[in-house]
Amino acid sequence: MPVEEARKKVWLVDSKGLIVSSRLESLQHFKKPWAHEHEPVKGLVDQIKPTILIGTSGQGQTFTKEVVEAMTSLNEKPIILALSNPTSQSECTAEEAYTWSQGRAIFASGSPFDPVEYDGKVFMPGQANNAYIFPGFGLGLIMSGAIRVHDDMLLAAAEALSSQVTQEHFDKGLIYPPFRNIRKISAHIAANVAAKAYELGLATRLPQPKDLAKYAESCMYSPAYRNYR
User: Fold this and answer.
1) 98 φ/ψ angles, rounded to the nearest 5 degrees
2) What is the CATH number of the domain that holds 186?
3) Can you give the residue range of the structural domain that contains 198?
4) Domain total in the chain
5) pLDDT tens, N- to C-terminus, the chain (229 residues)
6) What's the sign of the alpha-carbon dihedral 213, 135, 30, 200?
7) Which residues pair with 116 in a beta bridge?
8) Does 134 reside within a domain?
């Protein structure tokens, strides 16, 4: 999809409301490409009818009961991503998202939340955190000796992470694999990033290892300390 078409599907809201073309003169330069032809709107879901809410503003409690209920009325499975940290600044809690959506929300947050029981079902909130990508991505660059970072390598990391989510995870409401498996996840990401570096001709550690996943695991540090007492 051309970037111009992709931008039409993304609507941004700042402290003054929806980012629209009538505000162009006062907008910061990085917001201007996202200004749509639309009347100014203050609310999050007024008129736009979004399928996904992504909160990254650091403004706590902006995904109110009314907002989540409106999202639920518009979508069978509303996606609510309350990504702001710390927990006190999260746009809503996991319990609020599941309760206000009657257990239909697909929820992830920047801060960890405990499992939530609603209507006899236990939901496992996902933690949308850069700890999933960055360690494996960095390891993939190091083990391949990549001389440059290419967009396709970032895409390879994202695809590697998403491939670790199973149907069992989806059934529990998770859109990320359990964080307890982070070392295995990181090795898988590293292998995919390194493979893309070799494919693009950006790797300098030659020849390419036959099994990049096993090689990634061998490159990982294991914190094992002797007991001196």
Assistant:
1) -70, -40
2) 3.40.50.10380
3) 130-221
4) 1
5) 999 999 999 999 988 889 999 999 999 999 999 999 999 887 777 678 899 999 998 888 999 999 999 999 999 999 999 999 999 999 999 999 999 999 999 999 998 899 999 999 999 898 888 889 999 999 999 999 999 999 999 999 999 999 999 999 988 888 999 888 999 999 999 999 999 999 999 999 999 999 999 999 999 998 888 888 7
6) negative
7) 123
8) yes
